[in-house]
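REQUEST
  id: r-88c1
  op: predict_structure
  target: NAD-dependent succinate-semialdehyde dehydrogenase
  payload:
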Amino acid sequence: MALESINPATGELLEKFDEWSPGKTQETLAAVDLAWRDWRRTSFAERAANLRRAAQVLRQNKDEYARIMALEMGKPITSGRAEVDKCAWVCDYYAENAAAMLADEPAQSDGSRSYVAFRPLGMILAVMPWNFPFWQVFRFAAPALMAGNTGVLKHSSNVPRCALAIEDVFRQAGFPENVFRTLMIGANQVETVIENELIKAVTLTGSEAAGRKVAAKAGEMLKKVVLELGGSDPFIVLADADVEDSAETAAKSRCINSGQSCIAAKRFIIEAEIYDRWLEKFKDAMAALVVGDPLNEQTQLGPQAREDLMLELHGQVETSLAKGAELLLGGKPLKRKGYFYPPTILAEVKPGMPAYHEELFGPVASVIRVQNAEEAIEVANATLFGLGGSVWTRDSSKGETLAARIEAGAVFVNGLVKSDPRLPFGGIKNSGFGRELSYFGIRQFVNIQTVWVK
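RESPONSE
  id: r-88c1
  status: 200
  body:
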């Protein structure tokens, strides 16, 4: 099977890559394991120097990497540059803070001395998605490598150029050979790789279906796994909120990365008192977004990454409309070359509709009318997902009180849900388990070792 890089703005094939044989995959895993035996003995200062150089490589080649993303998965070029900058930030963050985060911690016991140490596990397999093809990888790789692990990447099969470019970042930064490698394999080899005794743990960002398969195999092999899966984030707007600010932020959040983001706001839960006024502002903000060629500096919303994904999204929209949702904007693929879907608003969304229950992975907003804050919380939690959420109100104290009742891994009051190297990131329920980033993320893939001395 070949790995194909297809331009979603045109539907044209960019390049084909031969999938590795199982033998080549095994040879690479053996080489990465061998590299770990030296890498684990390096100091935090040595690792940090390498990671800081990786940040420099990213910044120096920002335009090139953004162009690769634009051509391969349709990310607007300006968003691609921002993504590369964020990758450089996470490299610098862990280069600066990892030593303190993983320092030995003294513990009381009946020994002369006892403490908790944080040792590297070994080779970690990262199964990563196409939607943030650089950021998803670096938010795993930066802490994992700083902890003394090595990494192998099985990237999404539609972004092979991104996968190879990421491997080259570490090569240019001067990391020892085979500390981080890309596996040019399809999904059919993932279970075999997880079964390999050289793999010590697995992290996956992707769909719920993929997460279940990876978690099942990792569980069978008794290997730790971290999952960051889908989301259907609630965006609650209370009657006392700043209508204009919340509506503008709602449009930005719903359509970031052309709507293809796990933590994008997807269900807009609006108190009846301001529903009509808020919806008008939201419609204006969504309609103003510039849709077009991702290589154009003015483009804010590019194509969907694959044709099948666009068609699946459109099917969810059509079914929701057939069940009574109101179409206020968009609603049909654009009649142009490529996989473009316009900013779309479905109003009066009710239970029983795909737009109410399912994750819509594209620029489609589900707007739900509620009578009060209590109903808003009930609706927000009436989902299988639990990744993020936000509450909008002029009373920040009330916002915090309501935030505590939202069943999600992250809740923002009067702000757009986003990932930040300084804050833990991850979900609950069908959005997965485990955490990335911050102090918590770097400790996911270490051996928390008790040391007792007499």
